[in-house]
Amino acid sequence: xxxxxxxxxxxxxxxxxxSIDAARNLLxxxxxxxNKDKLARITNEDALVKIANAISICGPDKVFxxxxxxxxxxxxxxxxxxxGEERPLxxxxxxxxxxxxEDQARLVNQTYYIINEGEKMSSLAKTILRAEALAxxxxxxxxxxxxxxxxxxxxxxxxxxxxxxxxxxxxSSSAYVLHSAELLYRNCYAEFDAEAIRAGLFYxxxxxxxxxxxxxxxxxxxxxxxxxxxxxxxxxxYAGNTxxxxxxxxxxxxxxxxxYKVEEQLSEHMFITGLTGPGGRKTFFAGAAPSGCGKxxxxxxxxxxxxxxxxxxxxxxxxxxxxxxxxxxxxGIVEDVNREGDPYLMDCLRGEGTxxxxxxxxxxxxxxxxxVGHGEEVPASGSNFMGEWYEGKVxxxxxxxxxxxxxxxxxxxxxxxxxxxxxxxxxxQGAPVKVITYSGRDSDTMPPVWVARNADEGxxxxxxxxxxxxATEVGATGVRRQPWANAPFIPGALADYMAxxxxxxxxxxxxxxxxxxxxxxxxxxxxENRQGPGKGLLGEKKDVKVWLGWLEKxxxxxxxxxxxxxxxxxxxxxxxxxxxxxxxxxxxxxxNMQFSLYIDKIIxxxxxxxxxxxxxxxxxxxxxEIYARQKDELSALKEKYGSVVPVDALA
Length: 651
Known about the structure:
By secondary structure, the protein is an alpha/beta fold. The strands form nine sheets. Strands 1, 5, 6, 7, 8, 9, 10, 11 and 12 form a nine-stranded mixed sheet that branches. Strands 13, 14, 15, 16, 17, 18, 26, 27 and 31 form a nine-stranded mixed sheet that branches. Strands 2-3-20-25-19 form a five-stranded mixed sheet, with helices on one face.
């Protein structure tokens, strides 16, 4: 259970500002007149006390209030260049930011939830007791901003006024962080007070990069105080660790809706995109996938792209599922982004007129960024995340240094992308989502697409995602379970989150037409695991449009499907014309390789999940009942058809 405002508020305990009068005295003493005038617009007393405590703790030389005005945003951009956090590139509006070699991704082993004694947490969560976290903040954050400017911005995680949007304060000494925030989030300085009242809460995020030296990274910490909805981050610059409006506040929202908005809201690690179907109808999808598993590519396949990373859901009064993207920009992995797979994004990255912050790619002598998999000529030398680079360069351990880091990123406004549905993305009423998908990296077990037979089995698809660890997580290796692709961001007990999922998707608030279908996607089947030639993938990036196109038709009843123990599978005759639409032949042999049921592998996957969840306390019995039923049905099929069941046998 999440108990708000339980235990000592670390920000107040260390900052020692406990009243609004003390806060106003400190703000009057530490801010110049121009920034006092700007802060006067904020009257929320809790917010002012938190800001005063941040100043008291960190000891900045100056405080800058970012109102989101053109003048303020230009000042932040210039400050990022003056500090050397960013450098200009050849294209106007493009800059490059390099993180330290040790700080290229989420520091999973240095990221903790601050907890109180006796709290039940997810078994996948790293925790630290409140007293230990307080001692760290006292030791390492005291005067960490000496000689620096503290920048403070007020943002909305979602369109202002949306039912599931939350306001947040971002406080940092990093101009790169505030510059990124302006691209990724909606500045709500003018609406902050009203939004805090509407939402009933706001998040506070405090970060400083400190001296930004490699030797300091072992002391880096990312703390999330779930009781006080406050984050602390030190000695790092990678946006996934520092711009805690993003995954830090996503964690808080997952926590909050699980315990305080049951059956009302969900907070998910999902893309949102719309497809244009027959007759010009728009069908919106939302889908989960672990980082590095094709989520951005899937999102941008749509004709009406809304977001590539996060989604907030609620059930509208008309019984439809609604979703907003908390972000207004993308912080996207660029490895393998190229003209063939991502033409809209490439137009932004290589065209004119789009502001882009690049991170950890190679920059050539002409100020042009390059990255692995861009499909263009590679320069012989340049500078990248490891300093000066040349082809064949090795690191201190003898490993070849790639052109760009696997987790190199681009940050830009989503509205710059040609297929962005800006009106839908900014609508406080949200996009009406008809299809939910779940996917991971699975080379040998599940087919490319399958639809749950009911809401309970849909929840189980989400609970059963597996994937290889990716470059977005420092210190993570191997093949891992990735429940809902949201597991790293679920603070509370996994059983509570799962129960909330079952309750939400079975809600009587859904109308018959508004209840979404729920499906699994898998782009990573290989020839070697399906008795094919070679070791390559059975498909390619552009096939995503086929799988989504079939789901769009199935959701509207335009096509039927083949019932199997794992769910509904597409018929060959319905897929073939969809492949023709993207200019590809689709031989029946390939269909059989992709959709035959490999019974032993599926049963082994069920056993893996069942055994893992058996170690979790209080997991809903419904999960185990569904696994048992599917296993029995699969065993019956094996007895009748053998260990590999051609899908046509079930048609």
